[in-house]
Amino acid sequence: PQPLSLMFLLGMGMASERISCPSRCSCQYLEVNCTGQQLKEFPVAIPLDTRQLILAANNVSYLPAVELSFLADLVYLDCRKNLLGDDLDFTFIGVAKLVYLDLSFNNLTQVTFSTFSHLQSLVVLKISDNPNLVAIEKDAFANNTWLRHLDVSRTGLKFLDTSTVRDLPNLRFLGLSDNLWHCNCSFLDFITWMTESNVHFPDADNITCYTPEGLRALKMPAVEAQLHFNCLPQLYKQDYIFLCLVGFCIFFAGTVAAWLAGICAVIYEVHTSKGEEGEEEAEDT
């Protein structure tokens, strides 16, 4: 009887696991996999103890913050190749234990401080292959101090503030390739940081300038020397001629002023001495 009861309990446990698994997804211990099921919405009935959720290669355009918050033990979330975009602010507020997040191949447009600020345990963040991603706020990752792997390759980014990545103490891997980097003087500080940091930049041959035209396709950070030359004040022949003329004018004006002051002093002295002589003659008479 005892073996039968154990088999019955095991069967009931397996049945309950199947019942709680979302439709068109596969479930095993602490993992729910819904890859390539053409889902248009976030799946329902996900077991609350799920640690790993894979939603890759679907048509999901929205992640509901409330439903996600029920998965308080979630540590791994793979949402690559979906239609996520617009506004993800406060979406991950209830999954503070998340360590791995993949949002690559979506339609993200911007990353603000509120997008990932609640993910203080985050170690890996992939937001590459989001062609509409054009802005990452300066303090976007200020709370993600454990972030070790960050990939922003193949997006619409033209600029990234140096402090955004420099202030991540554990960052070791940063993907930057195939973006539309605008290598102007404002970007020189970031390129200098690249040369000095210990961060690994994969696919380095494709981290190149897109604009301005004169620097297009030049690799970073090798372009640093060129930018230093372009951004430091440059004096040309006409500039030296102009400076000489200005110096001569200042010298000439000073000389004339001194000469006029001398004449005025002499005239004043002569006038004063004549006045004194007149007074002396008047006294003698």
Automatic annotation (TrEMBL):
GO terms for molecular function: potassium channel activator activity; transmembrane transporter binding; voltage-gated potassium channel activity. InterPro entries: KCNMA1_auxiliary (IPR051432), Leu-rich_rpt (IPR001611), LRR_dom_sf (IPR032675), LRRNT (IPR000372). GO terms for cellular component: voltage-gated potassium channel complex. The keyword Signal applies. Keywords: Cell membrane, Disulfide bond, Ion channel, Ion transport, Leucine-rich repeat, Membrane, Repeat, Signal, Transmembrane, Transmembrane helix, Transport. It comes from the Eukaryota. It is found in: Cell membrane. Residues 1-15 form the signal peptide. Pfam families: LRR_8 (PF13855). The keyword Transport applies. Residues 20-52 form the LRRNT domain. It is a single-pass membrane protein. The chain crosses the membrane at residues 240-268. This is LRC52 protein. It comes from Mesembrinibis cayennensis.
